[in-house]
Amino acid sequence: xxxxxxxxxxxxxxxxxxxxxxxxxxxxxxxxxxxxxxxxxxxxxxxxxxxxxxxxxxxxxxxxxxxxxxxxxxxxxxxxxxxxxxxxxxxxxxxxxxxxxxxxxxxxxxxxxxxxxxxxxxxxxxxxxxxxxxxxxxxxxxxxxxxxxxxxxxxxxxxxxxxxxxxxxxxxxxxxxxxxxxxxxxxxxxxxxxxxxxxxxxxxxxxxxxxxxxxxxxxxxxxxxxxxxxxxxxxxxxxxxxxxxxxxxxxxxxxxxxxxxxxxxxxxxxxxxxxxxxxxxxxxxxxxxxxxxxxxxxxxxxxxxxxxxxxxxxxxxxxxxxxxxxxxxxxxxxxxxxxxxxxxxxxxxxxxxxxxxxxxxxxxxxxxxxxxxxxxxxxxxxxxxxxxxxxxxxxxxxxxxxxxxxxxxxxxxxxxxxxxxxxxxxxxxxxxxxxxxxxxxxxxxxxxxxxxxx
Length: 454
Prior knowledge:
Layout: E1 10-18, E2 24-28, E3 31-35, E4 43-52, E5 55-65, H1 91-108, E6 113-116, E7 131-138, E8 145-150, E9 158-160, H2 169-184, E10 199-206, E11 212-219, H3 225-237, E12 243-251, E13 263-269, E14 273-277, E15 280-284, H4 294-305, E16 314-318, H5 324-330, E17 335-340, H6 343-355, E18 361-365, H7 368-371, E19 381-384, H8 393-400, E20 406-411, H9 414-426, E21 430-437, E22 447-453
Parallel strand pairs: 3-5, 6-21, 11-12, 16-17, 16-19, 17-18, 19-20
Antiparallel strand pairs: 1-2, 1-4, 2-3, 4-5, 7-8, 7-10, 8-9, 10-11, 12-13, 14-15, 20-22, 21-22
């Protein structure tokens, strides 16, 4: 007898496959079921959210049986925290699974790849993050102050992630100290609906190779400065494995639930911390974008360096940020030009190039779509490392018009990558090779490097 499955009904299913980004697929009779999460081999209890002919969309309630690949001890926060979907899964299998998911994305867009290279693992599988953003909140309505990550599937509930495995002991100690300090002061977290409360975020950064630590507290402007300076002094008095180099306080009265600045005050130390990649010095400020896995970034840049040829004269690096890729490649090419819309990042890139004694590297501040028209000549190698939304189709058309013989696309979002690659192939480019580089163990995310030739 055929099962009549209704919206809201709870179902049990075994996961057969997974989709890049975290969703998973299973089957009940003739129905294909897509759940919000799952690992192949898991048996889930899920609730049907949408029903279409032959297809059900469901939300996972709980895991009934683990996959045979879940052989590692998971973080104690893994069930509730929405940050890590692969906690407890064998690391090699994590990488293989993400590699297959990306491969399936390419197939879904009909993209032909001449060579699919083996994925590269992160040198560190835990405590790899050099930056972590915590949110102040409550674990439940009117509950005590918490500082951590959003509860899985909830907009407002924040769980205390005091044993998070993605960060090192210094980050955990700073998180715990901060949470305890403001609990004692009985300050309330900011609520984005009622707009009540004052505590918003704690952002921690640490140079993996330098050991320098930056602490950045974000509150509304209604907090007394004496309280914030007392918190800062408490940190300075403690001992850490790394060196507390900077403590910042940002006042943010905007409605948006994001780290923004109305005013940023240096409470202690220097205005930046240092990280060292491929022997080069990079200075990181509170709002700098920087790869969150320094050890993994070094591996990623090894992959990128291999694409440079001895005959490369001019390299163009789009969405260059602090100029990490540009400066690394400048050691192997005649000249490199980096473009980024963030003026602060470009100024830092220029200062960094001077500090690293790199004289064949220039940087331009502005929108890529506009600045491409001001360039002269055809680059030998075009490097693209865009943010998660990828390259706008109009900007993609403009950069393809440069007719560079080789394009190296570095992507943190394979879903937007394949859209841009499809546009490139339609304009005469071929995909020489693709390689996944895992910078985000225990999560759904992976970096993808692709070489295109005309």
